[in-house]
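name: query_chain
kind: protein
chains: 1
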Amino acid sequence: MSDKVFVRLEQRAVLEVGGEDRRAFLQGLVSNDMNKVAGDRAVFTALLTPQGKFLFDLFVVELGDLFLVEAEAARIEELRKKLSMYKLRSQVTLAVSAHTAVFGLMGDGAAAVFDLPAEAGAATEFAGGTVFVDPRLAGAGLRALLPADGGPRVLEANGFTPAPFEAWDEARIRLGLPDGSRDLEVDKALLLENGFEELNGVDFNKGCYMGQELTARTKYRGLVRKRLMPVEISGPAPEAGAPLLLAEAEAGEMRSHCGNVGLALVRLEQFRANGGAGLAAGGATLVAAKPKWAVFPEE
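structure:
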């Protein structure tokens, strides 16, 4: 995409985590290393169940004496309550931000506007908030956490034009990037089936965190049998959760879609059997493709 555009991501919101114990508090809970988080470095991570199943995908960056935790807007209060359960005597504050909006930024030279390198996770303060290169994949553009009332105005003043949500959604789907519970089934999804290792969402050297045992076992025992991947759709787009078939064999499940592209959790055995082609769901046929960044387990 050559033009620089911004999209208000209404499906995302921000939780402010403060207090002197904020770093240690999150360190014991989430899948990535919170010691990496700084004003100039954002990370992608997840909160899991004690059994290692997905609960929330999170982007974390530091602004002043706060960690800004970007998560799903529809579930942000659920996240606050979940984290509150683990506070105990930790000196931590948790507050949903009513004044911060989340924006996706795309286009050639977008990072350079903020004097940022095109490097995943690079961050900087900007206009009372923060802007960072997507810590999963630099090619996914930038994310901006800015004051809701002035964010669009300041972005336009810096050469960005507003774009519809579908522009952002199609781009992230084509890259094979999940968007919260639209693509990751709560209490069921496994991080490594959904690319969190390659997308810098797991640190296997940080030590213990909630759900760490299953995540590590999945990696070291080679237990990944499915992967989230983009699909091209011919026909009516299947609803999320619709089963995919290859001939008569179960081949996976549909996740989110935008127009004629979508994401699906595809069984690797069926993907390899026909190179991703020949999948069917309802009245649609689908062709799955391995994301360029992905590393699939050997056959």
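note: The radius of gyration is 19 Å.
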